[in-house]
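Tokens in:
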């Protein structure tokens, strides 16, 4: 079938409704029967509902690589689950033409008591691969995961990094016509993420249809020709990846007021190890909405550690207006070894020196991770907008001349006359 003559994915008025509420306690048989008898006489049960998707329609041509972007809770993962046939839509329909492969939850189908070798065959079968296909790709899977020395060790003894590498290595060789990928770059270390990105780039360049969910706008622009921006279950924009990601970044929910930051912290999903409590941005001890580049900038992060943890790292990314990282700084980057943190409340302070930031707009993304394991604060982190004004030492004599770079560090020069 010619990839230029048919539509691989056709979504029409897709909607998905979830019921909100807490799990009820177990009831006796008598209570259940009485509840059923009383049900017709009740005016309502007070149930609340949430529309994760609310009537979206789009087409994806065969061979097209499309990024799905949006903040947490926008409906991105729900869309992929519907297209993967994991869940049914409440209304609407989705037509899929071609074999579908999904990389939604890395590691689904692994058994901790089985060895790496045995789990390769088990997980491959769960993902729809035939045994002969797994055998043919076995050496490539092992090489990609870099676990050859531990191949016959039960995976319960693997480090989290090894486990994640093996899970992605099994899923990566899938050869479907349509590949659905959900935020695989949010897990693993930097080397693993680079490998993932390279593999997905290979898939994209071999003419397969790809839907790629990510908070990494740089990766979306690099991999995708088109992007769909979702917000509250609806499509906000659909077009060239460079245009849509730019619109998304310009309208991202960022700000520096304490109320705005607090709202973003409250919206974070619950993590079993870390709870972010407060983030404050200050200059001269006072909260700021506009940053003066002639003064140090303080970032104060309050958090609670719920259990003894090794390799817990609190950090921030400073990004430009396009979402590209200018630099990243960890709270423990000067430590001599990987520290273990005991349960309790903590506050950590980062100071960005004066005369470093140029007069422009930045986005700071406050995050936390367990080294080589997982993110405790998911992408894109707690986003804080920084508008910087020029008050520093750079370019004082030429006030009408703009500072060209994305940073404006004060560089000490000396000049002497030689004749």
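Residues out:
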């Amino acid at each position: 079938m010619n990839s230029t003559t048919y539509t691989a994915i056709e979504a029409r008025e897709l909607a998905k409704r979830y019921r909100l509420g807490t799990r009820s306690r177990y009831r006796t048989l008598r209570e259940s029967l009485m509840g059923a008898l009383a049900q017709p006489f009740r005016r309502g049960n007070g149930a609340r509902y949430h529309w994760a998707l609310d009537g979206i329609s789009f087409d994806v041509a065969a061979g097209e690589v499309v990024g799905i972007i949006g903040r947490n809770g926008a409906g991105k993962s729900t869309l992929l689950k519907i297209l993967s046939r994991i869940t049914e839509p409440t209304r609407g329909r989705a037509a899929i033409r071609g074999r579908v492969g999904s990389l939604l939850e890395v590691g689904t189908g692994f058994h901790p008591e089985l060895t790496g070798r045995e789990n390769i065959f088990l997980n491959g079968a769960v993902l729809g691969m035939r045994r002969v296909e797994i055998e043919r790709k076995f050496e490539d899977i092992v090489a990609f995961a870099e676990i050859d020395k531990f191949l016959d060790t039960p995976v319960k003894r693997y480090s989290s990094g090894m486990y994640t590498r093996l899970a992605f290595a099994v899923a990566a060789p899938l050869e479907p016509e349509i590949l659905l990928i959900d935020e695989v770059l949010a897990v693993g270390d930097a080397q693993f993420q680079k490998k993932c990105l390279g593999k997905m780039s290979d898939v994209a360049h071999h003419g397969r249809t790809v839907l790629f969910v990510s908070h990494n706008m740089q990766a979306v622009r690099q991999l995708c020709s088109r992007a769909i921006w979702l917000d509250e279950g609806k499509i906000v924009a659909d077009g060239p990846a460079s245009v849509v990601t730019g619109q998304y970044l310009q309208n991202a929910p960022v700000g520096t007021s304490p109320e705005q930051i607090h709202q973003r912290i409250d919206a974070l999903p619950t993590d079993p190890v870390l709870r972010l409590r407060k983030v404050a941005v200050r200059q001269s001890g006072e909260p700021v909405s506009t940053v003066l580049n002639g003064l140090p900038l303080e970032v104060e992060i309050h958090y609670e550690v719920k259990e003894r943890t090794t390799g817990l790292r609190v950090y921030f990314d400073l990004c430009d207006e396009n979402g590209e990282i200018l630099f990243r700084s960890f709270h423990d980057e000067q430590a001599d070894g990987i520290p273990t943190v005991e349960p309790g409340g903590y506050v950590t302070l980062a100071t960005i020196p004066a005369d470093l930031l140029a007069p422009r707009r930045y986005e700071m993304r406050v995050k936390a991770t367990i080294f080589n394991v997982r993110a405790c604060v998911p992408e894109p982190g707690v986003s804080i907008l920084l508008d910087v004004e020029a008050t520093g030492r750079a370019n004082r004599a030429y006030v009408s001349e703009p500072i060209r770079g994305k940073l404006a560090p004060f560089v000490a020069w000396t000049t002497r006359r030689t004749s």
